[in-house]
Design brief:
75 residues, mainly alpha, 434 Repressor (Amino-terminal Domain)
Length: 75
């Protein structure tokens, strides 16, 4: 999937969580944060890069990045 912004990336992470029955409170425990803090990350949609890696690490995921030239992507 091509993500154009952090909200789309967070939506993909949330979709993964939903498909794997991972609740926000479980992610918060794994991140050693309050559930409200983790919810805010997803609601505001503008986390720092380190936070995205922390979320992925807590979910036992690796972030795979493929850079693509916009002109090579069909709309």
């Amino acid at each position: 999937m091509i993500c154009n912004n952090t909200k789309e990336l967070l939506a993909e992470i949330k979709k993964y969580m939903d498909l794997n029955n991972i609740q926000m409170k479980d992610l918060a425990v794994n991140m050693q944060k309050k559930p409200q803090s983790v919810s805010q990350i997803f609601n505001h949609g503008n986390p720092q890069c380190n936070t995205l890696f922390e979320i992925c690490e807590s979910l036992n995921l690796k972030l795979d990045v493929n850079l693509k030239n916009k002109s090579d992507i069909s709309k």
